[in-house]
Amino acid sequence: MQGHKNAESWGPLSSLPGNPMIWILILSELMVFGVGLMGFVIARDIDPVGFAKSQDSLNRLAGAINTMVLITSGLFAALAVEARARDNVQTSRWWLLAAGSFGVIFLIIKAFEYRDKILHNSAGLNENFLTLYFLLTGFHAAHVVMGLVILFIVGWKNNLENIETGTAFWHMVDLIWVLLFPVIYLLR
Amino acid sequence: MKHTRTNRAGLLRTWAILMGLSLATMLAGRVNENLSLAPLWAMALLGVAGLKARLILGRFLGLRHASSDWNSAFTILLVILQVSLLAAFLALYLPVFHSPTP
Amino acid sequence: MKYQSQKVAFWYFGAAMALFAIQVLVGAIMGYIYVAPNFMSELIPFNIFRMLHTNALIVWLLLGFFGAAYYLIPEEAERDIESPMLAYGQLILLVVGTLGAVLTYVFNFAEGNVVFGQQGREFLEQPLWVKLGIIVAALVFLYNITMTVLKGRKTAVSNVLLLGLWGVALFFLFSLYNPGNLSLDKMYWWYVVHIWVEGVWELVMAAILAFLMLKLTGIDREIIEKWIYAIVALALFTGLLGTGHHYYWIGTPGYWQWIGSVFSALEIVPFLAMVVFAFMMVWKGGRDHPNKAAVLWALGSTVLAFFGAGVWGFMHTLAPVNFYSHGTQITAAHGHLAFFGAYVSMNLAMITYAMPYLRKSEPYNQISNMISFWLMAGGMSFMTITLTFAGIIQTHLQRVNGEDFMSVQEQLGVFYWMRLGSGIVFVIGALLFIYATFGPKKVRA
């Protein structure tokens, strides 16, 4: 994406911040998770009692804490961009490290949740619920892992556009969780 | 593409609002109780979630620096998503489902 | 034609069109067998005809893609093909392999032989020596094209085309892998043609479309490149996991029903993007290119692909719907319009564009070419609608009411007659197309 002429040739996508391809990804991910969540709520309509029981087996508080972990991590990522925009490369790297660390905390909490679910209390739960719970949160967690790799890369190849694009991916992961958590854990 | 202009105070304010809204989500969703939500609470829950998503898009992802068409497009997308989820959830109250209490 | 070695494409297109003719004639015979089931049954069983119809389709589309690559890569890379001799050798290898496969299917002279006998896996029946020949041909092709690109100008069009064609070769390797577990066998089986048509072939299609838009309209390369990057991203994002809609009922875990449904429901998006792309380019850049027929085919291809692959695919892709509809005439309706719209039409668009240059003639017989478009598009659309109605009725009678297969088939007779009629119209269109592009030419003044 070099030069100005090139930057304008994205048409309507040109006015979006960061690399336009990341916005195509954001839209695609929103659609995938949107359709997945619709599937979840509709599957719930078929067996509301089983779903309510299954949802009650989740650790809602852990999910809520994870929301805050990701939002805070998102703040750090945004601060990294802000630092880099002021040509403060080292500071931006520290903020990226902070954002990534909170991503790791998210994954650790998630791992405890999964461990609990797999070892102790998945018996007698609605099968659609279990499938969708693991698929949607697992797919999201895979994005967190991917995001960590991306944060590492943009911290290393440190320029403003890279950091903007990489943190945009990170915010997207954040965004998806904010939509995912209430539907899977709380809506009942 | 273009680069965003951000400032630290604005980002911190966004973060504080998002944390507050997360508490609101916990309240609306009764995070510590195993009871079912009344339709109004469900509406509040999904509404707050949509608002949070919109804030992340606008402030953290810098969408507010893009054209107003894009801003409306994402708002509409989120509204459609949250309203559809709510409608699918409230469908349980329709008489076709035999057990009216979700 | 700017480079002498582009001439290779002529022979590829010629071989492709010969197979196209065979494919549609066999199709018409099968259409007749549907209404008169004993026709030729003593001579060649129906399943052999079906093998010919589907295998010929795949092989000629690949020949068309190879030809398209040999035509457009020199213009994109701004240099001659690395080795035209290898390209001709590759074609001979493919033709010999194809003839070998056809003879093996029809005469079945080496039943049970590991190397020469037909292999039992449906649609992957090619004898082992043919499969290995195809792989050698693919390696020759990839070497030839990759070297041409590496030593020349690198463009988004050739990058995407290369990515697609490497993917084609890579996924074909799964045709050699046949695990003992029947579910896994089926899963890898789908990797071959279905990850092609839902993934890597879309890249080839997008690259050819982009090349045609570059040549047929006055739009800047930069804008076209952005579009194809976006289309490629969408195609891979939706298609690779969307192929999961084939794993619903083959013994895989239940989560595939969710993964397949969600991602394949979005597979319509890249096809929609291609429609918007093609029409915007022609609308905005409307340079009056003399080859009107090529523009018609390119635009028509995106629209028919959108309906055939996108809309008709979505119709039965969600697992709860597919539970009832899979394997009925709805699948046949979707398969016909999707293949014709996306890959047949894009190949014919490329051939329509390239032939006048390859033969050093004016774009000639434009009217008959365009009539052939409407005959084929019309015939195929009518066939699709006919089969869709047949499929809906079949689904109800067979899957909901539980009537047995053959008594349902008898009740569908009227639809099969209409399908035969539309098929004959299509055959006429196909033959007219071949006449219009390969027939008498007008020499450039």
Number of domains of chain B: 1
The most extensive interface, with participating residues per chain, is: A-B, 59 and 56 residues
Query: N-to-C terminal Cα separation of chain C, in Å?
Result: 16 Å
Determine the fraction of residues in helical runs of chain C and give it as a percent range.
over 70%
Pick out the low-confidence regions of chain C.
Answer: none
Which structural class best describes the helix and strand composition of chain B?
A: mainly alpha
The total strand number of chain C stands at 0
Q: What is the share of helical residues of chain B?
A: 55-70%
Cα radius of gyration of chain C in angstroms: 21 Å
Q: pLDDT under 50 segments of chain B (min length 5)?
A: none
Strand content of chain B: under 5%
DSSP summary, beta strand count of chain B? 0
Let me know the average pLDDT of chain B. Answer: 87
Alpha-carbon distance between the termini of chain B?
47 Å
- Quaternary organisation of the protein chains: heterotrimer
Query: What general form of chain C does the structure show?
Result: globular
CATH architecture of the domain at 1-154 in chain C: Up-down Bundle
Q: What profile does the largest beta sheet of chain C have? A: none
The whole-number mean of residue pLDDT values of chain C reads: 94
How much of the residues of chain C is beta strand, in percent?
under 5%
Decide which structural class fits the backbone of chain C: mainly alpha
